[in-house]
Amino acid sequence: MKYLAIDYGEKRSGLALTDSSGKAVFPRPVLVMGGKKEFVRAVADLAKTEKITALVLGLPLRLNGEMGESAERVLKAAGSLSRALALPVYLMPETLSSFAAEERLRAAGFKGNRLRLALDGASAVLILESFMNLPEERRASLLFSKEAVSETKTAFSGEAVRT
């Protein structure tokens, strides 16, 4: 399977892809956010071009494991993508992925504008790496469905993958 991860943001969304074997993860150029339709169209175009077989959205949880406004926006985006694309959509619980990505980039010598430009993609890479490192049965439990949205709001308490 070939996965596309999205670190969904209001201004920019970080993107990362696996190779066709699902073993290597690569950042993609950041998606500058317009409206919801433009976002869905851009993801659909990339999914078609890259022959993506599944999407993974980072579900940002608070440190206490609860969902906040950012997580609610991700759930809405997951619903839009699920309705528009014939692809499975997974929600990967994550906490502080941007901070972990920034530490990784700084350790690699990134700073200033170069760091800022790489951060969203690096966050998406961490989300996708965390997802790919899960056992298959745990990945399956993260599949988005409209019925699971109400359960999702409490299901991840204390289970976020710290990236």
Features:
6 helices; 163 residues; 46% helix; 6 strands; Nucleotidyltransferase, domain 5; globular; alpha/beta; six-stranded mixed beta sheet
Would you kindly provide a written description of the structure presented here, covering whatever features stand out?
This protein has helices spanning 36-50, 69-84, 97-107, 112-132, 136-140, 149-155, and strands at residues 3-7, 12-18, 25-32, 54-60, 89-95, 161-162. It is an alpha/beta fold and 163 residues long. The chain has a single domain (3-162), classed as Nucleotidyltransferase, domain 5. The chain has a six-stranded mixed sheet, with helices on both faces. Helix 1 packs across helix 2 (69-84) and helix 3 (97-107) crosses helix 4.
Brief summary:
With 163 residues, this protein is of the alpha/beta class. It is built from 6 helices and 6 strands, in the order E-E-E-H-E-H-E-H-H-H-H-E.
